[in-house]
Amino acid sequence: MTAKFKVARLGTAAIVWTAGFFVAILFFVGRVFYASSSGAPFSTFDVGAATVLAIMVIYGWLRSVHGYRVTDNGLVIERAGPGKVTIPAENIASVEANSDLGSFFNLGFFSIGGLFGWAGKVRVRKPTDIQSLDALAYGTNPRCAVVLHLNSEKTIIVTPAEPASLVNALNQRAGIPTKAVAVSRKKKRG
Fold first, then answer.
1. Which of 37, 38, 54, 145 has a Cα at 20 to 30 A from 161?
2. Rg value, the chain, Cα
3. Residue 117's pLDDT is what?
4. CB-CB contact of 28 with 56 (8 Å)
C-alpha cells in the first residue's frame, strides 16, 4: 500500500522563472508574426530563440515533479515525463520538515532551475547566511521543504504540499527516523 502526496504549489521564484520563459517565447513568436503579417522577412534569430525556449520549456515540464509516493520500500518521486526517482528506505538516514531552509539556486546545467520548479543539483542558502547546503532538489517551493539525509551523506530535498504528512508517512511506513536538529550546512566552495 502506498501513500500519495501532491507537490506544493509553485513558489515565487519558480513562478517568476516559468512566467519569464513564457513571456520570452511570446515575445519572439510575436516578432515573427508581426514581420510575417507586414510582409517583411522575419529574423532567423527570432525563430531560433522561440524554438530553443520552447524546447527548454518542454524539457523543464518533462523533468518537473508532479507528486510523491511513500511505499514500504521508500520514496518515489513522480515526474511529468519518463524517469521516476526512487529512494530506497535503507538509503535514508533521517528525514525532517524544514520550512526555513532558504532559497534554491541552480547548480547543474541540465537541472531545470526554477522552470516549473527544481529537479537536480541546487545550492540552498538564506540571504543572511554565508554558508550554503548543496543538495538534490525535486520540488517547487522551498517553504514546503522536507530534507532527506542519506547514508551516503548526500542530501535530497522534496517539497510536498503537506510536509509533516510526508515525514510521518516515511516514519510510519518505511521506518525512517525523524531528525530533530537543524540541517548542517556545508561551506560554500570557491
1. 54
2. 19
3. 87
4. no
Which is it for strands 118-125 and 103-106: parallel, antiparallel or unpaired? antiparallel
- For the entire predicted model, the pTM comes to 0.82
| Residue partners of 37: CB distance under 8 A and separation at least 6 | none
- Give the pLDDT confidence of 145-182 residue by residue, as tens digits: 999 999 998 999 999 999 999 999 988 876 777 765 34
Full residue range of the structural domain in which residue 52 is found: 1-190
117: left (phi over 0), alpha (psi -120 to 50) or beta: left
Backbone angles phi, psi at 169, to 5 degrees: -65, -40
Q: Would you put residue 71 in left (φ > 0), alpha (ψ -120 to 50) or beta? A: beta
CB-CB contact of 75 with 95 (8 Å):
no
Exposed e or buried b for every residue in 66-77, given b needs 16+ CB within 10 A?
eebbbbeebbbb
Specify the number of domains making up the chain: 1
**Residue 14 and residue 114 in contact, taking contact as beta carbons nearer than 8 Å:** yes
Q: Which residue has the higher pLDDT, 125 or 181?
A: 125
Spatial neighbors of 161 by CB under 8 A, at least 6 apart, are 5, 6, 7, 8, 9, 144
